[in-house]
Write a structure and sequence with these properties.
The complex is a heterodimer of chains A (612) and B (184).
Chain A: H1 7-24, H2 28-44, E1 52-57, E2 88-92, E3 95-103, E4 109-114, E5 126-134, E6 144-155, E7 162-173, E8 178-186, E9 191-199, E10 205-213, E11 218-227, E12 233-234, E13 237-241, E14 252-259, E15 266-277, H3 291-294, E16 310-312, E17 317-323, E18 326-332, E19 342-344, E20 358-365, E21 374-378, E22 380-385, E23 391-402, E24 405-418, E25 425-431, E26 436-438, E27 444-453, E28 456-463, E29 466-471, E30 489-493, E31 504-513, E32 521-531, E33 536-545, E34 554-563, E35 566-574, E36 579-585, E37 591-599, E38 607-611
Antiparallel strand pairs in A: 1-15, 2-3, 3-15, 4-14, 5-10, 5-15, 6-7, 6-14, 7-8, 8-9, 10-11, 11-12, 11-13, 16-19, 17-18, 18-31, 20-27, 20-31, 21-30, 22-23, 23-24, 24-25, 24-26, 27-28, 28-29, 32-33, 33-36, 34-35, 34-37, 37-38
Chain B: H1 2-14, E1 26-37, H2 40-46, E2 49-61, E3 64-78, E4 85-100, E5 106-123, E6 126-146, E7 149-159, E8 161-162, E9 169-170, E10 173-183
Antiparallel strand pairs in B: 1-2, 1-10, 2-3, 3-4, 4-5, 5-6, 6-7, 7-10, 8-9
The chains are: A mainly beta (612), B mainly beta (184).
Chain lengths: 612, 184
């Protein structure tokens, strides 16, 4: 048969290829936009209340629309009015959707391209500032960065003094590799914090600063990073103590490119510059759990279980009492004594880092606590770093009571053994950033998510699902034998005088997402009568089911009898056995049992039953 | 003991021993029987079973005779809840009186007796080995099939309430069996 190529055939072929390419070959741009959209939606859902676009320069051609309805950028064109400075802004061939910022070779140090900054927009009304950036590997500069700069002056409460502060998130390069750095610096407190993570050249990143007003005194700054390729999020956070009402000067927002040396050529691609503001929006922490007021009863650790306390380093006296609202933990210090104590829900010493995913619990700090206490409550995670010398560190969430106020924040402590001076000195670096005011007598959910960036940890700390801060311990390249020492720590100490009174804490809904073996399900028991013709006995028949949520294989089940404060092991059974007869028990006696599962790492938390 | 004395007193009152040792008066037979316990839990644990034994009878006056027997019952069963294996052995050693209504080739009879039930039970719960008194009632027909040979078809009822440990139990029950014996 002789084949012929007809014009209709060519047309159909062309049409098919067009449709196929449209379906199966979405552009990187589309993927990036979708990712950014999802990131905004997932990461900040509910964060903005009816946001308005202040500046929106979309180089795709949609233009930037102001809150008053005018456009700062002409649709489809780049508006050079948006920028001023010494650099050049050109379209980048091959990157038609982006703009290339270039610093000419005769410049050094800071060269910034600053967004037009309407002064009418105050810090407290600002919500987000973001841009997509990429450092192409063709840059010749050996040290340069591009970043979002957010800076201004703060009038410190009660003082007629103004102090500069700045926050930035930058993507920098040394000519070989890239990294992302977040810095916030407050001159009035002479504090400076930074987070630092590796990045890649030739990769689009969304750099973003979110700003949230917590109350009249605190403003939170989120630094968000969206790696378009690896979809990771870096979210360090800062809190600014300021009087937002009397802040006359709006912050200065800029996209700044900076190189260190002359005769280098620094190129950065920028896209999707966005600034969003909204009306002043109180962002008080929500109350997820209100068991205290609703009278919800027992503190349950697992589906059926009760709290299993493991005490570590107990103080002179301590109490763990049950209450109709749950468990109450009281620290009672003898007069004239100082000390700390700690109650762990469960030590996780044998669980490797990569196996732990989440630790969370609900906590209520009672206003009946003695205000002299300086409590530390929260999640602890411990590690041992190997560089430059073995050192221990821990980080977690703290709740600090100061008089009649309570604050929550992160804690990062490094105990490093320094080789110099000659006598090894243990230095402790203690940070408590990101203070946030919370209330007494209200339930808050504390959560720590543990992830990884390659071989490094990334810890995200949340309060009521709001990201409090993130920690990616840059200095701890080799967690190595690191371990989680405790899921929860309770500490009370008074530094300047002997404490007195109680500190009262309610805890509820403790969940640890780790290879801690979950207790078996449907642990039930009943008393059975067993007899021969001439002899008889009562048997407590215990039954359970395997917990399908256990990710790590269970090796055995252990059944304990609870007698007073003692937990006596009765039997250990294989993982395929789901019934046990505790024989020869007394008919009239109430028995309490608990069962645990054990995997290759550790024994899990128990679940309890009582048999009347 | 009071009951035993009472029964002996009634027997002697009704059948005075004037005809003692007249004619063929001694019988000895081996017997096998099907035992059905009275108590439900006995049945539940061990079920019904076979008993074996020897019985000696002596005509003492007219249709009156005294008898003595020893039986052996053993069974393996399961505990009520756990189903674990349990074993029991019961050896009743009894004696009493019988009265034969006829003296021909077919001699129906009834009898009463008292006995000592020696029992032993072993199970995962524990071991019991003791003895208690119990009572017998029996009825049967003795066939003289030839000179000196008898076949004895009999039904027994026994009762022996015991409580060696935690629970009460009746070791007795109904048993129906056949005996083959000699008389001389």
């Amino acid at each position: 048969m002789k084949s012929r190529v007809t014009p209709m055939g060519i047309w159909y072929l062309f049409l098919s290829l067009s449709i196929a390419s449209a379906i199966v070959a979405p552009t990187l741009r589309a993927e990036k936009e979708e990712t950014a959209k999802n990131f905004l939606k997932e990461g900040r859902s509910g964060f903005f209340a009816n946001p308005e676009e202040l500046l929106y320069d979309d180089f795709d051609g949609r233009g930037g629309k102001q809150g008053n309805g005018t456009y700062l950028a002409e649709k489809g064109k780049l508006s050079s009015d948006m920028w001023h400075g010494y650099g050049k802004i050109v379209k980048e061939p091959g990157h038609q959707n982006a703009v290339k910022l270039t610093i000419s070779g005769d410049q050094e140090d800071f060269n910034e391209l600053t967004l037009v900054n309407p002064q009418v927009i105050s810090l407290t009304e600002f919500r987000t500032f973001s841009a997509d950036v990429k450092l192409p590997s063709v840059s010749s500069s050996k040290g340069y960065w591009i970043g979002l700069i957010y800076e201004g002056e703060i009038k410190v409460l009660g003082q007629e003094a103004w102090f500069p502060w700045w926050l930035n998130i930058t993507l920098g390069s040394d000519g070989q590799s890239a990294s992302i750095n977040c810095i916030w610096n407050y001159q009035h407190t002479k504090t400076s914090e930074s987070f630092y993570v590796p990045a890649r050249l030739d990769t689009w990143y969304n750099l973003r600063i979110d700003i949230k007003q917590l109350d009249s005194k605190y403003i939170k700054m989120n630094f968000l990073l969206d790696d378009q390729i690896i979809h990771s999020i870096l979210s360090p956070e800062a809190a600014v103590l300021t009087n937002s009402v009397n802040l006359p000067l709006g912050p200065r927002r800029s996209i700044r490119i900076c190189k260190e040396k002359k005769n280098d050529r620094a190129i950065a691609l920028v896209d999707n510059v966005k600034a969003v503001y909204s009306q002043k929006m109180p962002a008080k922490l929500g109350i997820l759990y209100d068991n205290f007021e609703t009278g919800s009863l027992n503190l349950e650790l697992w589906d059926q279980g009760s709290m299993d306390f493991v005490t570590v380093a107990p103080p002179e006296e301590y109490k763990i009492e049950s209450d109709r609202h749950g468990y109450v933990m009281k620290a009672v210090h003898k007069k004239g004594s100082l000390g700390t104590w700690q109650v762990d829900f469960k030590p996780l010493d044998r669980v490797p880092w990569g196996e732990i995913q989440r630790v969370s619990f609900d906590l209520l700090l009672s206003s009946k606590s003695n205000s002299d206490f300086f409590p530390r409550l929260g999640l602890d995670i411990h590690g041992i770093s190997q560089y430059p010398d073995p050192a221990s560190w821990y980080t977690g969430i703290e709740v600090r009571g100061e008089g009649s106020k309570v604050y929550v924040g992160g804690v990062i402590v490094d105990n490093q053994s320094m080789p110099v001076p000659t006598s090894a000195t243990n230095l402790t670096y203690y940070r408590f950033p990101m203070l946030r005011r919370i209330d007494f007598d209200k339930w808050y959910n504390f959560r720590m998510d543990i992830g990884s960036n390659g071989d490094k940890l990334r810890l995200d700390f949340f309060v009521n699902d709001i990201l409090l801060f993130s920690e990616s311990p840059q200095d701890h390249d080799n967690p190595g034998p690191s371990s989680v020492g405790s899921a929860f720590a309770f500490q009370s100490q008074k530094l300047d005088r002997a404490p007195s009174g109680d500190m009262i804490v309610f805890i509820d809904n403790v969940h640890i997402s780790a290879p801690i073996p979950l207790p078996p399900l449907n642990f039930t028991g009943q008393k059975a009568f067993n007899r021969s013709l001439l002899r008889s006995e009562y048997i407590n028949v215990l039954k359970w089911e395997a917990n399908p949520n256990n990710q790590t294989a269970v090796n055995k089940y252990s059944i304990y009898q609870i007698e007073g404060d003692k937990k006596n092991l009765i039997v250990e059974l294989g993982s395929t056995i789901f019934e046990y007869w505790h024989k020869n028990v007394r008919k009239e006696t109430q028995y309490t049992y608990c069962i645990t599962a054990t995997n290759k790492y550790m024994e899990g938390l128990p679940t309890y039953i009582k048999i009347e | 003991m009071k009951k035993t004395a009472f029964i002996l007193w009634v027997a002697l009152l009704l059948f005075p021993p004037g005809n003692f040792l007249q004619g063929k008066v001694v019988s000895l037979e081996v017997k096998g029987a099907y035992f059905q316990p009275t108590e439900k839990v006995f049945k539940e644990i061990y079920g019904n079973g076979q008993t074996y034994g020897l019985e000696l009878g002596i005509r003492i006056w007219g249709g009156l005779a005294v008898w003595a027997s020893g039986d052996y019952f053993t069974a393996t069963g399961k505990l009520t809840f756990t189903g674990e294996v349990t074993k029991i052995r019961i050896i009743p050693v009894c004696g009493g009186g019988k009265y034969y209504f006829l003296s021909g080739r077919i001699s129906p009879y009834v009898g009463l007796g008292v006995g000592y039930f020696a029992y032993k039970e072993e199970s995962p719960i524990g071991k019991v080995e003791k003895g208690n008194l119990g009572y017998f009632g029996k009825a049967g027909i003795s066939f003289n099939i030839s000179s000196g040979i008898i076949i004895d078809i009999q039904a027994d009822y026994s009762h022996c309430q015991v409580k060696p440990a935690e629970v009460k139990a009746n070791l007795g029950g109904l048993q129906a069996g056949i005996g083959l014996g000699v008389v001389f």
